[in-house]
Amino acid sequence: MATVLVTGGAGYVGSHACKALAKAGHVPVTYDNLCRGHRELVKWGPLEIGDISDRARLDAVLAAHKPEAVMHFASLIEVNESVANPDLYERNIVGGTQCLLEAMAVARVKIIVVSSSCAVYGTPLKVPITEDESWKPINPYGVSKMKMERLLQAAEKDHGLAWVALRYFNAAGADADGESGEWHTPESHLIPRVLDVAMGRAKAITINGTDYPTPDGTCVRDYIHVADLADAHLRAWRYAADNGGGMAFNLGTSTGSSVREVIDVVRATTKRDIAVDIGPRREGDTPALVADSSRARKVLGWQPQRSDLATEIADAWAWHQHLYG
Ligand SMILES: NC(=O)c1ccc[n+]([C@@H]2O[C@H](COP(=O)([O-])OP(=O)(O)OC[C@H]3O[C@@H](n4cnc5c(N)ncnc54)[C@H](O)[C@@H]3O)[C@@H](O)[C@H]2O)c1
Q: Which ligand 1 atom lies nearest to the CA of residue 53?
């Protein structure tokens, strides 16, 4: 049984990781400033309120809990917000991670697993995307995640940090027992926005662009179940502890789903009408982002269990009704 500091543990993916850690017999200590997270999602261990840029607070929490490792989810996550306010994202993701790594070095915490993103790749040359794809982020959010990964490489050299960067594609679904799920305000992710239409919380879903070079003309994304992401974090922690050094893994299903496919599965699952508006392409949208996750499958032994679209949407629908019903 070990203690793990979970930054951003009051958020969507972090809360699922806390549940997985607790289920495996560990103590997840959530460290979150609650700027976007929810106290109600911290159910599997203590909550320490604090900002990752607050060095004194981090020092105190690390000294009090003496974690064996850190799982670092804390981050702002809105691409549009990052375009409007790049400095905010630089401070939050790059400055915040730097502060966290310095505090860890002083406290002699040697292992970190971080949430990175497929946003580091920008518009890839090849799909499915492997970890060897070059970094060409096309928005400040992706640039900040790229810089965050560089900080890990530097800390490995400077302090012998063992790190894993998990580059998720699109997180989806909710806890199968209904104990946590996606809860963002405002919500920019497709599945909960379509579920908003099913619930009558929104009139219609707008499809931005129907003329992409994809099978049905709408953008294709790779939806990975949040419980499968949580499982990957536990495996990544073990990997880092056993091997040291640093490694990045793509986490996705290797199959893409189009916007129209998502809407169709929501219709079938909820048995509700989903009104659709057609809008223009959004600037910066890439036609298809699909992961090649064979490295995670081979090296971590990771095997997604709930990452088919029907299961993801059924789990998300149950959570959405619980939250807003
Ligand atoms: N959701 C996705 O589809 C997705 C895809 C790729 C990568 N990611 C990454 O996964 C991580 C988790 O995403 P999520 O969807 O759970 O987001 P979320 O907004 O639900 O959770 C993020 C949490 O971080 C906290 N936080 C933000 N800034 C902080 C700070 N300075 N100090 C302390 N706490 C802070 C927020 O309060 C929130 O609880 C993020 O790093 C995100 O970039 C998410």
A: 31
125: which 2 tokens?
């040359």
CA of 29 to the centre of ligand 1 (A): 16
d(CA 88, CA 76): 9
Q: How far apart are the C-alpha atoms of 100 and 79, rounded to whole Å? A: 23
DSSP 129: B
> Considering the entire predicted model, what is its pTM?
0.98
160: helix, strand or coil: coil
Same-domain check for residues 233 and 114 = yes
Distance (Å, whole) CA 160 – CA 163: 9
Q: Interior CA angle at 243 toward 237 and 244, to 5°?
A: 80
Q: Domain residues for 233?
A: 3-172+223-251
- Whether 179 maps to a domain, the answer reads no
Q: How far is the CA of 81 from the centre of ligand 1 (A)?
A: 14
Check: CB of residue 29 under 8 Å from CB of residue 67: yes
**pLDDT per position as a tens digit, 211-261:** 999 999 999 999 999 999 999 999 999 999 999 999 999 999 999 999 999
CA–CA gap between residue 273 and residue 268 (Å, rounded): 9
Q: How many domains does the chain have?
A: 2
| Catalytic choice (12, 89, 141, 223) | 141
Cα separation, 67 vs 188, whole angstroms: 33
Decide: 293 and 302 in contact? Cβ < 8 Å: yes
Closest approach atom of ligand 1 to CA 38: 39
CB contact at 8 A, 224 and 304: yes
- Greatest CA span in the chain, whole angstroms? 56
